[in-house]
Amino acid sequence: MQPDISVKHLSKVYGDGFQALKDINLEIRRGEIFALLGPNGAGKTTLISIICGIVNPSSGEVKAAGHDIIKDYRMARRTIGLVPQELNTDSFETVWNAVSFSRGLFGKPPKPAHIEKVLKDLSLWGKRNNRIMSLSGGMKRRLMIAKALSHEPQILFLDEPTAGVDVELRRDMWEMVRKLREHGVTIILTTHYIEEAEEMADRIGVIRNGEIILVEDKARLMTKLGKKELRLQLQQKLDKIPGELTLEPVELSDDGYELIYTFDSQQEQAGVARLLRTLGDLGIDYRDLQTRESSLEEIFVGLVHE
Fold it and tell me: What angle separates helix 296-304 from helix 218-225, to the nearest 10 degrees?
């Protein structure tokens, strides 16, 4: 099966000489949720804008649902829905008319039943006759999603879709995203809420300084790059780490009542067993132990600053 998004040797240099993207190669599978993460200025929005036909590439090839975005622009663009970061809506238009008009822009015939379903899924049905200027910021964000879904796209880009959205609206949005994925829609999202990517995404891509530095299945990424931490609460205070433990990645808490052992999640058994045996040999007793794993946010921060 061909990927829904295929990017080959894509580069973008702006008129002032700034190179926003450098030889990007990326494939996004049909029906997956792909999270594109990166710090501000890394190139996320430029990449999305090129795929969606808003910004022209300097070199390279991009296909959406098999359609070249340059040679077959109209067909490529009809397969894509985009929810941009900025709220750009006609304040004097009604919700219903704005979403219906967006569908017409893509050459699709009227389909009131679909518009009704989209508005209901996004809890906008009760506001369908309201002028956009009367909506809250969160409702306007939902409206942007409704407009992007109006023409039934095969691929949906969500560029920071939950920025400024309250917790309840955010939860509803992600429930809708899951339903779209179940119906075969390919979803590419950027977000500063990395816990959302951790919960939602099938795969993670990390972009830094205009280059893709990593693309990996989320579960495999967290196994491969994640660290685990074992914290041992000691029965008695230690003034310093015993010499027998200095070769281990062990730290002593400031109060001397806790040992913190950091280890690779793929090599946990041997290291933990060795540590506990050494503590037993030294007569160091502990009353409790706890483990925790790295979050995706910690892995991301480590990658970006590596």
Answer: 70
CA distance 27 to 46: 17
8 Å CB contact between 29 and 3: yes
- Reported CATH class of domain 226-304: alpha beta
Give kind and range of the element (H or E) at residue 228. strand 227-234
SS3 299: helix
Q: Where are the chain's structural domains?
A: 5-222, 226-304
**Using one digit for the tens of pLDDT, what is the confidence trace for 153-204?**
999 999 887 766 667 777 777 888 888 888 889 999 887 777 777 788 899 8
Gap between the terminal Cα atoms of the chain: 35
pTM metric for this prediction: 0.74
What is the dihedral sign for C-alpha 134, 140, 143, 144?
positive
CATH classification (class only), 5-222 = alpha beta
d(CA 48, CA 213): 17
89 close to 127: Cβ distance less than 8 angstroms: no
The model's pLDDT over 195-248, given as tens digits with 9 standing for 90+, comes to: 777 788 899 888 888 999 888 888 777 666 667 777 888 888 888 888 887 767
- Exposed/middle/buried for residue 130 (C-beta within 10 Å: 0-12, 13-18, 19+): middle
Please give the full DSSP string across 193-214, using - where no structure is assigned: -HHHHHHH-SEEEEEETTEEEE
Q: Residue holding tokens 């999270």?
A: 35
CB atoms closer than 10 angstroms to residue 47: 29
Q: Which of 155, 122, 140, 150 lies closest to 53 in space, CA to CA?
A: 155
Cβ atoms of 205 and 26 within 8 Å: the answer is yes
